[in-house]
Amino acid sequence: MNKPLILVVEDDPSVRNLITTTLKTNDYRYVVAPNGSAAIMEATSHNPEIILLDLGLPDMDGVQVIQTVRSWSNVPIIVISARSEDNDKIKALDAGADDYLTKPFSVEELLARLRVTQRRLSLMTAEMLTASSVFVNGKLKVDYAGGCAYLDENELHLTPIEYKLLCLLSKNVGKVLTHTFITQNIWGRSWDNDVASLRVFMATLRKKLEPTEESPQYIQTHIGVGYRMMKIE
C-alpha cells in the first residue's frame, strides 16, 4: 500500500516535531503548516491525501479550516486536539472531520488511526474503480441496488430504518458519524427524541449484525458523540 501525503497542521513545535518524526520514521510523506491560513494554502497547492489538524491555531479555529477545506474537498481530516469535551468533538465532526484524537496521544494510536484512514481511502478508491453496488465487510454484505443485506450469506431481516442506518454507516465505514449527522440523514431533522429513537434502532441493528459474543464488532459506539462502522479484516 503506497503511503499517502499527509498535511500536518500544528502550531506547537514540540507536538509538530513528534508527529513529523513519527511520520518520517514510518515512511510517510508530509508537509507542515503552523496556522490555519498556511494550512488552507498547503491543502490547495499540495492536494494532501490526509490532514492531521490541531483545533487551537493562532490565527483561526481549526473548525474554520475544516469548513473551508470541505467546501472543495473530501480529503480525510483527523483532528488532533487538547480539547476533550464531547461538544468540541461534535463541532469538529459535524463540520466534516473524519476522526478525533485527543492530546496527549501515543504514537501507536496515531499510527493506528492513520492505518484505518488508509484502509478507508483504499476502499473508496476500489469502489470508484469498480463502481460496485455491493459493499462487503467481513461476513457482512450490503446490496445497495437490491435493497437487501446479508450476514454470512444469510439475508438479514431489517426494518426500513435499520436498513437506512446500515447503508449510511457502510458508506462511511471507518468514520465517526455524529448523532446529528445520522438523525438528519435518516429522519431529515435532529430532535432530542430522534436521538433516543436512534439508540433503540442502533441496538436492534447491532443484535442482528452481532448475534453472538464471538461475532465481530461491526458498530462502535462513541458515547455522547455518535457511531462508527468498523472495518473487519
List the helices and strands and how they pair.
Layout: E1 5-9, H1 13-25, E2 29-33, H2 36-46, E3 50-53, H3 62-70, E4 77-81, H4 86-95, E5 99-102, H5 107-130, E6 134-137, E7 140-143, E8 148-151, E9 154-155, H6 160-170, E10 177-178, H7 179-187, H8 192-209, E11 219-222, E12 226-229
Parallel strand pairs: 1-2, 1-3, 3-4, 4-5
Antiparallel strand pairs: 6-7, 7-8, 8-9, 10-12, 11-12
Helix pairs in contact: 2-3, 6-8
Domain OmpR/PhoB-type: 132-231
DNA-binding region: 132-231
Modified residues (4-aspartylphosphate): 54
How many alpha or pi helices?
8
CATH architecture of the largest domain: 3-Layer(aba) Sandwich
CATH superfamily of the largest domain: Response regulator
Distance between the termini: 15 Å
CATH fold assignment of the largest domain? Rossmann fold
Strand content: 15-25%
* Low-pLDDT ranges: none
Read across the widest sheet, the strand sequence of neighbours is: 2-1-3-4-5
* Helix coverage percent: 40-55%
Structural class, judged by helices and strands? alpha/beta
| Total number of distinct structural domains | 2
Per CATH, the class of the largest domain reads Alpha Beta
For the secondary structure, the number of strands is 12
Largest sheet: number of strands, sense, barrel closure: 5 strands, parallel
Q: State the order of secondary-structure elements, H for helix, E for strand.
A: EHEHEHEHEHEEEEHEHHEE
Mean pLDDT: 89
Give me the Rg, rounded. Answer: 18 Å
Pfam families: Response_reg, Trans_reg_C
Subcellular location: Cytoplasm
GO molecular function: cis-regulatory region sequence-specific DNA binding; identical protein binding; phosphorelay response regulator activity
Main location: cytoplasm
